[in-house]
Design brief:
This is Response regulator transcription factor. One of its GO terms (molecular function) is DNA binding. Keywords: DNA-binding, Phosphoprotein, Transcription, Transcription regulation. It contains eleven helices and six strands. The protein has two domains: 135 residues, Response regulator (Rossmann fold), CATH 3.40.50; 69 residues, Arc Repressor Mutant, subunit A (Orthogonal Bundle), CATH 1.10.10.10. The protein starts with a strand and ends in a 9-residue tail after the last helix. The relative contact order is 0.11. A six-stranded parallel beta sheet has the order 2-1-3-4-5-6, sandwiched between helices.
């Protein structure tokens, strides 16, 4: 299956470089280019994109607003957004995840990392680039929610619908572990882990694993460790 990729960046030179890289892969193709967020939302629907590489800062409708629009549109439920940031320590990183992005990647990432990011996002996995550690996410969440103490009450209440095993798996997902790693830790099969993850996503209204990570922190199930 070919992964259909949409490029959204206001810098034409960067889009051209990304296009050459993506189109060189046998399992993916660029189906459109957008110079602002509004165009990205329109093309995501028109071109049936699977993954959008979305720059956060663009004129007019920025990447954050565009991601919210994509996430809120039932017709685009299958679309995964990977945010591109100039600096990985970016004040919008967690806002991007909350808006519905599957993850983020620094523009200085290696070509192999970018291609891997597209494949990971297309597969529905949470994407945190190698340079963006779990501690970074935890730090941003701590800064955003530290004054709230008990975490987000809505998410906390939803956790009540999870079984004990689903909560246990959610903690592992928030720790950045893959299904295989979680299966080994809990001594169950990867298929069983996948089932628990999918059920947790359905009960918590999460689009993908990235959203599960945010919910786990915002609800207070997992406490940020700021180092």
């Amino acid at each position: 299956m070919t992964i259909r990729v949409l490029l959204a960046d206001d810098q034409a030179l960067l889009r051209s470089a990304f296009r050459v890289l993506v189109d060189s892969e046998p399992d993916m193709e660029v189906v459109g280019e957008a110079s602002d967020g509004a165009e990205a939302v329109r093309l995501a629907k028109e071109q049936a994109a699977d993954v959008v590489l979305m720059d956060i800062r663009m004129p007019g409708t920025d990447g954050l607003a565009a991601t919210r629009l994509i996430s809120a549109d039932p017709a685009l439920a299958h679309v995964r957004v990977v945010m591109l940031t100039t600096f990985e320590v970016d004040e919008y990183v967690v806002q991007s995840l909350r808006a519905g992005a599957s993850g983020f990647l620094g523009k200085g990432a290696e070509p192999e990392e970018l291609l891997s990011a597209i494949r990971v996002a297309a597969g529905g996995e949470a994407l945190l680039s190698p340079a963006a550690t779990k501690g970074l996410i935890a730090t941003f969440l701590a800064q955003s929610n530290g004054s709230q103490g008990g975490g987000d009450l809505v998410h906390a209440e939803r956790l009540g619908a999870l079984t004990g095993r689903e909560r246990e798996v959610l903690v592992q997902v928030a720790g950045g572990h893959s299904n295989d790693e979680i299966a080994e830790r809990l001594e169950v099969s990867p298929l069983t882990v996948k089932t628990h993850v999918n059920r947790a996503m359905a009960k918590l209204g999460a689009r993908d694993r990235a959203q599960l990570v945010v919910i786990a922190y915002e609800s207070g199930l997992v406490r940020p460790r700021v180092t």
